[in-house]
TrEMBL record:
Transmembrane segments: none
Signal peptide start-end: none
Name of the protein in question: DNA-binding response regulator
Record-level Gene Ontology MF annotations: DNA binding
Top-level taxonomic group: Bacteria
Amino acid sequence: MVVVADPRVRSTVTRHLWALGVRDVIEASSIAEARPRVGNPRDICIADVHLPDGSGLTLLSETRAAGWPNGLALSAADDIG
């Protein structure tokens, strides 16, 4: 699952996954949109740290607790301190 608010970034991440052979990619633009899918674990959740309705890190914790084996947090370069 790719959870990124910016549609351009979300699309780019999805395209890279497709290039790696991943075909069943779920996309979401917010935590609220992603949460209903947390109970159906996939191979990985890639989430932006800064989402419109909260932290992607919170979502990654939820996916881990629900049995998702992998999580990856994304952050734009200007987000780093």
